[in-house]
Design a protein that fits this description.
Number of strands of chain A: 13
Distance between the termini of chain A: 15 Å
Order of helices and strands of chain A: HEEEHEHEEEHHHEHEHHEEEE
Structural class of chain A: alpha+beta
InterPro entries (chains A, B): PurM-like_C_dom, PurM-like_C_sf, PurM-like_N, PurM-like_N_sf, ThiL-like
Keywords (chains A, B): Kinase, Transferase
CATH architecture of the largest domain in chain A: Alpha-Beta Complex
Oligomer: homodimer
Shape of chain A: globular
EC number (chains A, B): 2.7.4.16
Largest sheet of chain A: 7 strands, mixed
CATH topology of the largest domain in chain A: Phosphoribosyl-aminoimidazole Synthetase, Chain A, domain 2
Number of domains of chain A: 2
Organism (chains A, B): uncultured organism
Largest interface: A-B, 71 and 71 residues
Mean pLDDT of chain A: 95
CATH class of the largest domain in chain A: Alpha Beta
Low-confidence stretches of chain A: none
Strand content of chain A: 25-35%
Number of helices of chain A: 9
GO molecular function (chains A, B): thiamine-phosphate kinase activity
Radius of gyration of chain A: 19 Å
């Protein structure tokens, strides 16, 4: 008997990945934000995310509209991280006995509002019973071949950039857990960087979204690109509101930024000489891709560790 | 406050369907076994099904391998019902604290064995924590344009046929629930009719798979095709082993056939003059498509009602 925490989410994923037979038409399978399939001048992007009550949302804090909204947003973020755009959506939902029709209708409204904002169409799904409220979303998107950005596209010497401030989602979660007032809006109702991803895609090399915290995402880029990274701690963007939450809870907001996740910002790498091409997106440079090793430095270099652990 | 059972699974689906904006490229959205998208000479088929512990499998009865196997099979059955074949698969799984690594590995083995048998490739997914074991599978398949079979393709005068005996899954479930020995193999380890669906597709009109029982499936065909149906009760195929389970439990096996579901046989309609074209598939004629009304007859005509209700 082996505890799952010994193997971890990524150990499980590696285990299934090694036994899969690849077929013609597959450009990228397990190991990026989306799977990528050949489709003429485009690539088809496929992503799926499951949200379980108590783990990915809390029915005491999130309104049903927010649960529906979030379920779509977290999936669009994966499409944004590949440089693409979403087209079609499949919704599976398991409903426990204690939700009524109006509650479910509000979940659907949240999904439909997110779908409308980001121009995707819900075309199928599965509505069933379960002892827990569970939502699974699958998105199908497209990307022009020249715009595809993968985790494995980072190159030595690239700057590591992020698209906005980090730690905000986990700050809100920890405030809600502690029953304190503060900056909880983003945690309850996150948004994603689809439009920005589209603008960045023609110029950047590696790209990933912040699901599990900056440390985890930079490590994914390093794993897939076969490179190293040096993150400069004092450049990691944390907003005043997130710092304020840190004070209220006596917690270090840097931990939220590196290991919290669900900020749905984009982390991307770009050659220094190309930085002016994306000036209008206001990129925040937080470090550099190196030949090997993964470090975070504040004068003193330490291993870049952390990231949200599901198990 | 409205109880979901008042609206039902299909009421919920209708409610979301009416608010969806259709986009170019969509051939069929909500309301069939799969969503259908344009793709050159082919249609792309998309289907998703969620399996929740306690509702769709029972960890006391199903081995982890069987849970993984079933999760893939139920989805392939939806592709088979459109006349297509599966190509790609996304797996989401929520794992509770009380499953260990070996258990999860056996679930994956069941998924991989089903994937190998039916030549599909797992290319992505989501592995997360949840207080219940939940699996969501999304399949992407293809069908040649001329082979697409929809629920709405039945025509007045068509014969209604099924591909094999019904009620077998629910017989097994009721035996397991009662703690009795008997024909439980199919319930625990169902299979689907992919190869048969491919052979039928060029010849039949409407087609659907048996997820919720024959009564429910024939009603879906009538709804989507704008026709009626008359099912002859004594032609509904029920095996000796299923009848035996009925005797053990003092239950009417016809109820299992009409309202049980999960038999994953195909229900299809075909003009009488074309029946000899599919002779080698040994179709079982159970009724006829009529202009209106949905009936089951055993000499006396009664309304064709029933079907598994999730709520």
């Amino acid at each position: 008997m082996t505890d799952i925490s010994e193997v971890g989410e990524f150990g499980l994923i590696d285990r299934i990945a090694e036994r899969i037979k690849e077929k013609e038409g597959l450009v990228k399978g397990i190991g990026d934000d989306c799977a990528v399939l050949e489709d003429g001048d485009y690539y088809t992007l496929l992503t799926t995310d499951m949200l379980v009550s108590g783990d990915h949302f809390n029915r005491n804090w999130h309104s049903p509209w927010q649960i529906g909204w979030k379920s779509i947003i977290v999936n669009i973020s994966d499409i944004a991280a590949m440089g693409g755009y979403p087209e079609w959506c499949l919704v599976s939902i398991a409903l426990p006995d204690d939700v009524d029709y109006e509650y479910v209708d509000d979940i659907f409204k949240g999904m439909l509002d997110a779908s409308e904002k980001y121009e995707l169409s819900i075309i199928g799904g599965d509505t069933t019973h379960g002892d827990l409220l569970v939502i699974n979303i699958t998105l199908i998107g497209d990307v022009e071949k020249e715009n595809l950005c993968m985790r494995g596209d980072a190159e030595v010497g690239d700057l590591i950039c992020v698209s906005g401030d980090l730690g905000k989602s986990w700050a809100g979660l920890d405030l809600l857990r502690a029953g304190k007032e503060g900056y909880t809006e983003f945690h309850l109702q996150p948004d994603c960087r689809l439009e920005l991803g589209r603008r960045l895609a023609p110029h950047v090399n590696g790209m990933i979204d912040v699901s599990d915290g900056l440390a985890s995402e930079v490590n994914h880029i390093c794993d897939e690109s076969g490179v190293g990274a040096l993150v400069e701690k004092d450049k990691v963007p944390i907003s005043d509101r997130t710092r304020e939450a840190g004070k209220i809870l006596d917690k270090d907001p840097m931990f939220w930024a590196l290991s919290g996740g669900e900020d749905f910002e984009l982390v991307f790498t770009i050659p220094e000489e190309d930085l002016d091409r994306i000036e209008d997106t206001e990129p925040i440079v937080v470090g550099k891709i190196t030949e090997e090793g993964r470090y975070i430095s504040n004068g003193e270099k330490k291993p870049l560790e952390g990231g949200y652990k599901h198990f």
